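User: Please fill in residues for this 195-position structure.
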């Protein structure tokens, strides 16, 4: 555990003017306000091929998974696509496993063009639980994202505050102790197997 805790924020969008990226930058402000250090892991900067377990890892895959593994906490950010999280984030998570997420604190953030992106957050929460991560109860959503930002900054303060608090909680709970194993966690071998 680093002192101060280090938080990696994964941008699950490839758009140049991504609202997800803008929101994660706000979350990283919360990280810094809470005394942590933060790093934006922008998936535009990594060449992550569609996962094929028969292929060897590339340098970019190794760099990305190492950055996630070395972080004390992770914030996953995504736009909502068809009621779920983005394919680019799914592929990035597919390259990860228990080594990157087991017992790690994870915060969730989703943005949507329309109303509250609850299903995207629920789906991400399920994936993180399957990886034995500790997902923060506090999550952040930015509905109607096109009107929440102007010139790359939040103009909707209520959403901005909730996003900053997500960053603060990631620092506050970065060193939470894992629960003792239970029957369910001992049976969770899905990410350890390949087809």
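Assistant: Residues filled in for all 195 positions:
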């Amino acid at each position: 555990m680093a002192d101060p805790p280090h938080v990696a924020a994964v941008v699950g969008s490839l758009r140049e003017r991504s609202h997800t990226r803008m929101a994660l930058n706000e979350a990283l402000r919360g990280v810094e306000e809470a005394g942590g250090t933060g790093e934006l892991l922008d998936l535009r900067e990594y060449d992550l091929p569609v996962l094929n377990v028969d292929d060897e890892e590339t340098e970019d895959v190794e760099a990305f998974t190492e950055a996630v593994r070395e972080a004390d906490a992770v914030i996953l950010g995504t736009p909502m696509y068809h009621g779920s999280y983005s394919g680019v984030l799914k592929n990035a998570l597919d390259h990860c496993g228990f080594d990157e997420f087991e017992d790690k604190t994870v915060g969730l953030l989703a943005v949507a063009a329309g109303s509250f992106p609850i299903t995207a957050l629920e789906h991400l929460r399920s994936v993180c639980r399957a990886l034995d991560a500790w997902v923060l109860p506090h999550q952040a959503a930015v509905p109607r994202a096109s009107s929440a930002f102007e010139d790359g900054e939040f103009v909707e303060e209520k959403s901005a505050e909730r996003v900053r608090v997500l960053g603060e909680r990631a620092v506050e709970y970065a060193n939470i102790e894992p629960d003792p194993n239970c029957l369910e966690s001992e049976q969770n071998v899905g990410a350890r197997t390949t087809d």
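For context: Residues 69 and 100 are 4 Å apart (CA to CA).
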